[in-house]
Amino acid sequence: MSAPENLPLDLEALYRDSNVRDALEALDRELVGLVPVKTRVREIAALLLVEKLRRSVGLQAEAPPLHMSFTGNPGTGKTTVAMRMASILHGLGYVRKGHLVAVTRDDLVGQYIGHTAPKTKEVLKRAMGGVLFIDEAYYLYRPENERDYGQEAIEILLQVMENQRDDLVVIFAGYKDRMERFFSSNPGMASRVAHHVDFPDYAEEELFEIAALMLGRMQYALDESAAQALREYIALRRARPHFANARSIRNALDRARLRQANRLFERRGAALVPSDLMTIEADDIRASRVFRAGAGETR
């Protein structure tokens, strides 16, 4: 085709008016660290912006492949990034609604013959026009069980991912090694997933910053000794089994708030001031079993 007239184009206006900037700024506010993830999201957003601009001047611009894989340990922000990605896709017109539907195997796979197809199709119906986020996606495929119905769900997903890719984006998520095995066992699925984003674990200082942000949003604060106790807690808890990054930190803060409330309740006869209601003290943190030497508990 002939090249379009060499007229000036305003990529900045498209960036501003499409809500992509708002979504990327929200991602920076909501998630500490994760620089490689944020960089990759920005790269995908840039591709989508340029492709939209190309279409606006009549250049051939086949819709870029958008299905994705998010890999990493629990609590590293995969669902949050998926929500922001849905917003970006909607702002640029790649999906109609921009909502996120998060599911697991149990939402897609039935227990008996004839049960899987309607379950999977119902989920897909809810997700149309937005993003379908499938957590621990590798559980869909269980080759060791000949009577497992996960393969039926996979086949339906593959068909929709190919035939209705202009109306649905699928994001598969889970542990990196298991997702790699999942894709190697399902080459048809792997060929349809264009973007692979790996989410690293948080460093100790990043986890402390996450805790401070969480507390701030709930209008709580740590006194100086509690801040030190929390840093020690993070170092100990991070080294224990079943650590789930930001999710484990949120759970720890919930328990600290519970202990603070009980501490205040025990002194209910005494006068309280607003700062008492807002302050987490060291004992609220150090009461955790994590500080008990040799304890097998992880709370």
Quick structural gist:
Helices cover 54% and strands 10% of the residues. It has 14 helices and seven strands. The relative contact order is 0.12.
Description:
It is a single chain. This protein has helices spanning 11-17, 20-30, 35-56, 78-91, 105-108, 116-127, 150-163, 176-185, 187-192, 204-217, 224-238, 245-266, 274-278, 282-286; strands spanning 68-72, 100-103, 131-135, 169-174, 195-199, 221-222, 279-280. With 299 residues, it is α/β, with parallel strands linked by helices. The strands form two sheets. A five-stranded parallel β-sheet has the order 2-3-4-1-5, sandwiched between helices. β3, α7 (150-163) and β4 form a beta-alpha-beta unit. The mean pLDDT is 90.
Average pLDDT works out at 90
Biggest sheet architecture: 5 strands, parallel
SSE arrangement, N to C: HHHEHEHHEHEHHEHEHHHEH
Percent helix: 40-55%
Features:
globular; 54% helix; alpha/beta; five-stranded parallel sheet; two-stranded parallel ribbon; 14 helices; 299 residues; single chain
List the helices and strands and how they pair.
Layout: H1 11-17, H2 20-30, H3 35-56, E1 68-72, H4 78-91, E2 100-103, H5 105-108, H6 116-127, E3 131-135, H7 150-163, E4 169-174, H8 176-185, H9 187-192, E5 195-199, H10 204-217, E6 221-222, H11 224-238, H12 245-266, H13 274-278, E7 279-280, H14 282-286
Parallel strand pairs: 1-4, 1-5, 2-3, 3-4, 6-7
Helix pairs in contact: 2-3, 2-4, 6-7, 10-11, 10-12
